[in-house]
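call fold(seq) -> tokens
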Amino acid sequence: MPELPEVEALREFLDEHLVGKEIARVLPVAISVLKTYDPPLSALEGAEVVGVARHGKFLDIESAGTTGELLHLLIHLARAGWLQWKDPLPSGPPRPGKGPLALRTALTEGDGFDLTEAGTTKRLAVHLVRDPRDVPGVARLGPDPLADDFDLAAFTALLGAERRQIKGALRDQSLIAGIGNAYSDEILHVARMSPFKPTQNLTEEETAGLYEAMRSTLREAVERSHGLAAGRLKAEKKSGLRVHGRTGEPCPVCGDTIREVSYRDSSLQYCPTCQTGGKPLADRRLSKLLK
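ret:
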């Protein structure tokens, strides 16, 4: 799933390639992709793109319509969605079918982008709204972890009100916006902290270390992605991860074997030596198989 660093890189890419251009049409191909109907997508025809913003994992393409009304095309790529820039776009109209294409945005200059989604579980979402907060997923977002005003005191206050495992807290978009499964693993590895550690048990020193790990991990990932074309971002994310998705490989810090805890539809990775005092965490799914 694209998380804050990749979505921020896409925002920069689209800001460079879209702002100042005119939208010819926006064509939904998959029935499930469009989540709103008022205003209609036809309101974007002839609109000029005036900016591209990010809200957590949401992309926000801001356009001034022909009536002067400011419209927001909100995109959430979910787990398997992606954006593909094409110059030029295919000349023929997209055909609905079983392929990955979900939505096409064409510019009057002939270029534009496709939204695609792999797999059969369709969660990619597009909203056209007058205010980003009209999208429930945006309205509930917590603070951006890289915002200038999100300091250690704010982070400490947020965690101080929580009573749960730190991995789940970091991934909660209503608590902190933009961190998902991959970067929460990376942050906890840098902080040398177990993903199962209860938030209420964090010391002042541990909270400060976790805050610095969060900021440095995300900033470094954003810097690595800066200036990359949209098509190269997935590979950059994978190559930059130290523990997530690397079960069975040696930890780049201590050399211990990276281990995994599996759930029904996801998994987490961690280093026992760096994070759990050398003790493997219980993997419930594996335990059931061994019974």
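The first strand starts at residue 23 and ends at 28.
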